[in-house]
């Protein structure tokens, strides 16, 4: 999926999460968007890869694309780090929700993700979209609708 789709995925996921928790929605949303871009640090041409080129090269060299940073193991490691070093819980929650949304979206592509890294299986949904193709636009449109729906609900629950 492209960065744009991941961002809207992070928006939808963090707004949905804001409805079922008491975290500050604005913090969840901001952290969710950043979190939705983190897993593609393994990809030099991604938004975050271009922002942090050295770290990106290092991770790509060590693990390749869509492996470690798209796995449950990575989520758990980040969760433990955040738990110990991040004083604002809403930031941690948002980052993790955003990252999880990224991995789920990449599971909807043909290539799938190495969800159980270091195991080598590619995990993907039975129905997949082609990155940049019409099916991705459909995913983008649906996520936009979800975002409006959850954002609207949030506005009126304040
Ligand atoms: Zn990815």
Automatic annotation (TrEMBL):
Keywords of the record: Membrane, Transmembrane, Transmembrane helix
TM segment ranges: 72-105, 137-156
InterPro entries for the chain: YdjM, YdjM-like
Protein name stated in the entry: Inner membrane protein
Annotated organism of origin: Planomicrobium stackebrandtii
């Amino acid at each position: 999926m492209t960065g744009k789709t991941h961002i809207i995925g992070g928006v939808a996921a963090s707004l949905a999460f804001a409805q079922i928790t008491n975290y500050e929605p604005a913090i969840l949303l901001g952290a969710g968007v950043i979190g939705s871009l983190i897993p593609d640090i393994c990809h030099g041409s991604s938004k975050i890869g271009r922002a942090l080129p050295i770290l990106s090269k290092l991770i790509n060299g060590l693990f390749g694309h869509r492996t470690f940073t798209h796995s449950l193991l990575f989520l758990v490691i980040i969760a433990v780090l955040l738990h110990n070093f991040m004083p604002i819980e809403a930031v941690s929650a948002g980052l993790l929700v955003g990252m999880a949304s990224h991995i789920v979206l990449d599971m909807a592509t043909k290539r799938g993700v190495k969800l159980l890294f270091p195991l080598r299986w590619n995990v993907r949904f039975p129905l997949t979209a082609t990155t940049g193709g019409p099916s991705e636009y459909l995913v983008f449109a649906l996520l936009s609708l979800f975002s409006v729906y959850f954002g609207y609900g949030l506005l009126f629950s304040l």
